[in-house]
Design brief:
With about 425 residues, the protein is an alpha/beta fold. The protein has eleven helices and 20 strands. The chain folds into three domains: about 5-175, 3-Layer(aba) Sandwich (Carbamate kinase), CATH 3.40.1160.10; about 265-330, 2-Layer Sandwich (Alpha-Beta Plaits), CATH 3.30.70.260; about 340-405, VC0802-like. A hairpin with a 5-residue loop joins β7 and β8 (about 145).
């Protein structure tokens, strides 16, 4: 008997009818002879509604108490789903993250899993029960409840699949797989049959909302076979695995992210140690920096630009304000109307000229590039937010992503 871990997001369990549908899918998997662990998110928009309540009490709620509040959402969904499975004649048991043995660090709101004590889950599986686990949450060694950040149920599911050595981790969502880009922007976007861990990592890190970044990292580190598929259809979705075993186009997908802002510090001294001072101060304030560029200015000064999540912009502004005073810099600029657009593809390693083609395509569409960042399988550019749709459509057409990899041309003309 194999072990299958299934994850169901908030849209999959948005109401009681959908919960009953999920119960039927789980029972079908169990009836096929598999042990099943189902990881469930809170119903629909419950997390957002709970956050709204918190901010009606105070504009700055303590993170520990926010975690206590948000963790209740998944407790509702796991209990209801377990009840639905019982009505179908199968034995199920629901667990909170703590009961399931999900141990995290002490960072509230975006905790990291440090261990999975799976003995209780294994015992219940041996008794023939279906185990339902609350996603998105865990507990510290001091027994404080924590949450794993947006999309954290994905990470819960993949971590459990790794610990239980599951045959597959099925991520059920409201889309039927990973696409070459957002189908809402490009009608010709194509569902990808299989994608490598490293490509999925880059797509998750640059704006694709199908799988949480840390879930992709867990999958890669522990070689968990992940299957992203629809909660409402029976057809196959997208497999995420180490080797796709197929001919690839040199560009696999295009992602975009409109949730960042650009910060520019003007006129800092152009000498060793200045960048270290700026970014160590940001790190101490727990502000993650994405793209960075430094331009040499006049009279021994330089301008430093970088991007941060808009959610962290207030914190970044406070830190930057202090740094500007300390360094006697000329000032700052903040731009909230930017977007990051990225080309992803492991095939780019062996296909020179992709960056040139990307830049030429953007130029042809009168799209100015503000910042550039690259890795061996990714090229990212910062552009104006209002130009995202034009950029995505133009690049998708240029690199012929509507075609299957074996149909794509060897070069781009």
């Amino acid at each position: 008997m194999g072990v299958i871990v299934q994850k169901y997001g908030g849209t999959s369990v948005a109401n009681t009818e959908k919960i009953k549908g999920v119960a039927q899918r789980i029972v079908k998997t169990r009836a096929a002879g598999n042990s099943v662990v189902a990881v469930v998110s809170a119903l629909g928009d419950t997390t957002d509604e709970l956050l709204k309540l918190a901010h009606e009490i105070t504009p700055d709620p303590p993170e520990r108490e926010v975690d206590m509040l948000l963790a209740t959402g998944e407790q509702v969904s796991v209990a209801l789903l377990s009840m639905a499975i019982h009505t179908l004649g199968y034995d199920a048991i629901s667990f909170t993250g703590a009961q399931a043995g999900i141990v995290t660090d002490n960072t509230h709101a975006k905790a990291k899993i440090v261990d999975v004590k799976s003995d209780r889950i294994r015992d219940e599986l041996k008794r023939g029960k279906i185990v339902i686990v609350a996603g998105f949450q865990g507990v510290t060694v001091d027994q404080d409840i924590t949450t794993l950040g947006r999309g954290g149920s994905d990470t819960t599911a993949v971590a459990l699949a790794a610990k239980l050595k599951a045959d597959v981790c099925e991520i059920y969502t409201d889309v039927d797989g990973v696409y070459t880009t957002d189908p809402n922007l490009v009608r010709e976007a194509r569902k990808i049959t299989a994608i490598s861990y490293e490509e999925m990592l880059e797509m998750a890190a640059t704006g694709a909302g199908v799988l949480q970044l840390r879930a992709a990292e867990y999958g890669r580190n522990y070689k968990v076979l992940i299957h992203v598929r629809s909660s409402f259809l029976d057809e196959p979705g997208t497999l995420i695995k180490e080797d796709t075993g197929m001919e690839r186009a040199f560009v696999t997908g295009i992602t975009y992210d409109t949730s960042e802002a650009k910060v520019t510090i003007l006129g800092v001294p152009d000498k060793p140690g200045i960048a270290a001072k700026v970014f160590s101060s940001l790190a101490e304030a727990d502000v993650n920096v994405d793209m960075i560029i430094q331009n040499v200015g006049e009279k021994g000064t330089a301008d430093i630009s970088f991007t941060v999540a808009r959610d962290n912009l207030g914190r970044a502004e406070k830190v930057v304000g202090e740094v500007v005073k300390e360094l006697d810099a000329r000032g700052t600029n903040y731009d909230r109307s930017i977007a990051k657009i990225s080309l992803i593809g492991a095939g780019m390693r062996t296909h020179p000229g992709v960056a040139a083609e990307m830049f030429a395509t953007l130029a042809k569409n009168n799209i100015n590039i503000q910042m550039i960042s690259t890795s061996s399988i990714k090229i990212s550019c910062v552009i104006r937010a209002e130009q995202v749709k034009t950029a995505v459509q133009a690049l998708h057409k240029k690199f012929e992503l509507e075609k299957e990899p074996e149909e794509a041309k060897e070069g781009v003309g």
